[in-house]
Every structure is written in C-alpha cells, then in structure tokens.
Write a structure and sequence with these properties.
This protein is of the alpha+beta class and 81 residues long. The protein is built from two helices and three strands; from the N terminus they run αβββα.
Amino acid sequence: MVPTPSMRERDPSLPAYVAPGPENPLGVRAMHLTWQYYRIHGTGDTRKIGRKSSSGCIGLHNEDIIEVFDRTPIGTQVKLI
C-alpha cells in the first residue's frame, strides 16, 4: 500500500510503502481504481468504514471485500451512489 500524500501530510511517520500483511491498513484485499489513490479495500478498523477518515478510499469489512473482490472482473465500472 502506498499512503496518499494527504495521509503522509497528516502523519509524517507513515512509511512510503506498507507491505502486505496483518498490519496493512488495506485489510485483506484492495481494488485499485483509475487513480492510484482511489481504492475499495477491506479494513479491520470499523471506525474507517463510511467516514471521512478513509482518505478517499471506500472501506469495507474484510469479509465483504473478499466477496466483492472475488466476484468483480478487472475493468468493471464502479459507480458511487
């Protein structure tokens, strides 16, 4: 995971890259959208689901992103309503 510039501005101690694993804030899966900082991803931190703290990402419960990730072909159009 590459933190967004705004995330690093808020917390300069963030590394430039977070390797996959249990400490990764993107949870168990991440779907990268057109711009590198827009993602739909899982999280174990439920405070980040549906809140401004998501830094532009759409956070889902880990079990939900697994289902969406497994059912969504690359190139699928995403519409936010």
